[in-house]
Write a structure and sequence with these properties.
alpha/beta, 4-stranded mixed β-sheet, 9-stranded mixed β-sheet
């Protein structure tokens, strides 16, 4: 599976809260016990694909900074095939979360990033980096867009052309701010993003929202409803709903990446769309019980059906 998208490093600072900060009324004081790093954004999508047992090729960009080096090392050591272009002067996005290990909750988060769009030359260099062999081998092309500067219309048009030429499945997870460049591309988005894209200010139903987006974008669409499951809106007007089993969500960070990853593995295996969505529901239901950006294993997915 070919993954294209923005990268970020998720850095966690974990510890215990034993008292409040005497310097700031009401603020908790975290006694730090450990630091750890996890791959975020499109890297999390690729990591989930690999963890289930499929091969993932990740095309993305990083900056020539320490965060980029840490991220590249994580990708390589976790068995992902990184096809990463380094851009001098770019800041690799880093999200730092402060976590209470005893209360198992996030206290605060701070982000270090500078969203800069690729220049015309950088865009062409990135497009030129794609391997013809890998474009042929991969059954599914995924775009995991976090609106951090990588994804633009020229890249989407290139991938659309390659997918049509090679008869590949092409599915994107766009941010609402980039929605217009994905015309004609099948999409998976959450209900909050769907409402933002559709510009809904009234009481339209979820089905009406989905049909409005499909009509505008001229593509198939999956909307995830969180604990309510997900719905598939086909170009021909068909609608399929797949519920999820009741779960208590602990942390929804990265659940969308997991759902997209497992959905695409199902589609690559030529499962029906409803079966692929059911797999994706189960997968997301596993990772929301974990803290932070998480992946699942094949065994966890199998056991969730028991």
């Amino acid at each position: 599976i070919l993954v294209v998208g923005d990268l970020a490093l998720d850095h966690y600072i974990s510890g215990e809260i034993k008292r409040l900060n005497p310097e700031e009324f009401g603020a908790p004081l975290l006694d730090v016990t450990k630091h750890f790093d996890i791959m975020g954004c499109a890297a999390n999508t690729a990591n989930n694909i690999h963890a289930i047992g499929a091969e993932s090729y990740l095309y993305a960009v990083i900056g020539d900074d320490n965060t980029g080096k840490v991220l590249l090392n994580l990708l390589t050591s976790n068995g992902i095939n990184p096809r990463i272009m380094t851009i001098n002067g770019k800041i690799t996005p880093k999200k730092t979360r402060l976590i209470s290990s005893t209360r198992k909750r996030q206290i605060a988060r701070y982000d270090e990033e500078l969203k800069t769009q690729l220049t015309e030359k950088q865009t062409q260099d990135f497009i030129n980096s794609f391997s013809e062999k890998e474009l042929d081998e991969c059954q599914v092309y995924i775009v995991s867009d976090y609106a951090k500067g990588l994804i633009n219309k020229k890249i989407i048009d290139f991938l659309k052309k390659q997918s049509q030429k090679r008869k590949k499945i092409f599915i994107a997870q766009p941010k609402p701010s980039n929605f217009m460049i994905f015309k004609g591309v099948d999409m998976m988005i959450n209900i909050k993003e769907a409402k933002e894209i559709a510009g809904i200010n009234n009481n339209l139903s979820i089905e009406q929202i989905g049909k409005k987006i499909v009509k505008t974008n001229k593509s198939n669409l999956i909307i995830t409803y969180g604990k309510e499951g997900m719905g598939f809106f086909a170009r021909n007007g068909d609608y399929k709903y797949v519920p999820t089993k009741p779960i208590e969500a602990f942390d929804e960070t990265g659940a969308g990446d997991t759902a997209l990853s497992v959905l695409c593995i199902g589609l690559a295996l030529k499962l029906k769309i409803q079966d692929s969505m059911d797999l994706a529901n189960h997968a997301a239901g596993i990772v929301v019980k974990k803290m932070g950006t998480s992946i699942l294993t094949k065994q966890e997915l199998i056991e969730s059906y028991d």
